[in-house]
Amino acid sequence: MEGVSIRIDNPDPHTGIGEVVVKGDNVMKGYYKEPELTREVFTEDGWLKTGDLGYMDSKNYLHLRGRLKNMILGSSGENIYPEDIESIINNIKYVLESLVIQQKGRLVALVHLNMEEMEERLNHLKSEAAQQINEKIDHLLEEIKIYVNERVNKSSRLQAVILQTAPFERTPTLKIKRYLY
After folding, report:
1. Amino acid 76: pLDDT
2. Which residues lie across from 21 on neighbouring strands?
3. Rounded distance, CA 140 to CA 45, Å?
4. Would you put residue 89 in left (φ > 0), alpha (ψ -120 to 50) or beta?
5. Per residue, what are the HEC states of the chain?
6. Residue 79, beta-bridge partner list
7. What pLDDT is recorded for position 124?
8. Contact call for residues 166 and 91 (beta carbons, < 8 A)
9. How far apart are CA 122 and CA 136, in angstroms?
10. What is the Cα 36 distance to its own chain's centre?
11. What is the mean pLDDT of each successive set of 10 residues along the chain, which is 181 residues long?
12. Whose CA is closest to 62, among 121, 113, 7?
């Protein structure tokens, strides 16, 4: 972008992924009457810390991997980007949304399914519908785990996929409130 300088701070020596920092006339000067908060969001040399993780490729294109605060540190010290795993899950039929978190050192996906669509598809079963739907859900959650684990590296493999019965709580800007889960 014209007039904006971008660099990657503290890049990982193997992947080149680090925090994206920016500088330019369009970048704020600081928080009004909040010098401490301003110091937290700027580097010592005056670059704004975006909180985004990314890398620059050989053609100098910026690739974003996720948010710094969302990154999960794996048991072997590897960086796991939940947004990458969630994008795979969210493309699976019947999945409305998902959230990948760490629980007791295990990588877990919370999955909110489109129950109306599943019930509609199984509607012809009538009396046994509830049991069939529950079996289908269990089977689908296991399929999601297998499908995702075939597509991610070893450190990003899911240990469990859990049904999230209610929609995820969201911020006013419609982002999932990760800290609640």
Report:
1. 83
2. 7, 49
3. 51
4. alpha
5. CCCEEEEEECCCCCCCCEEEEEEECCCCCCCCCCHHHHHHHECCCCCEEEEEEEEECCCCCEEEEEEHHHCEECCCCCEECHHHHHHHHCCCCCEEEEEEEEECCEEEEEEEECHHHHHHHCHHHHHHHHHHHHHHHHHHHHHHHHHHHCCCCHHHCCCEEEECCCCCCECCCCCECHHHC
6. 73
7. 62
8. no
9. 9
10. 29
11. 92 92 95 95 96 95 92 88 95 95 94 86 62 84 96 94 94 92 91
12. 7
Cα atoms in the 13 Å half-sphere on the side-chain side of 90: 11
- The CA–CA distances, whole Å, from 148 to 70, 78, 159 equal 19, 18, 11
* CB-neighbour burial class of residue 66 (10 A; exposed 0-12, middle 13-18, buried 19+): buried
By DSSP bridging, strand 106-113 and strand 160-163 are parallel
Where do the domains of the chain lie, and which CATH numbers do they carry? 4-69 (2.30.38.10), 72-180 (3.30.300.30)
Decide: residue 43, CB within 10 A, 0-12 exposed, 13-18 middle, 19+ buried.
Answer: middle
Place of tokens 């503290």: 10
Rounded CA gap, 117 and 126, in Å? 15
Phi first, then psi: what are they for 89, rounded to 5°?
-60, -45
| N- to C-terminal Cα separation, the chain | 36
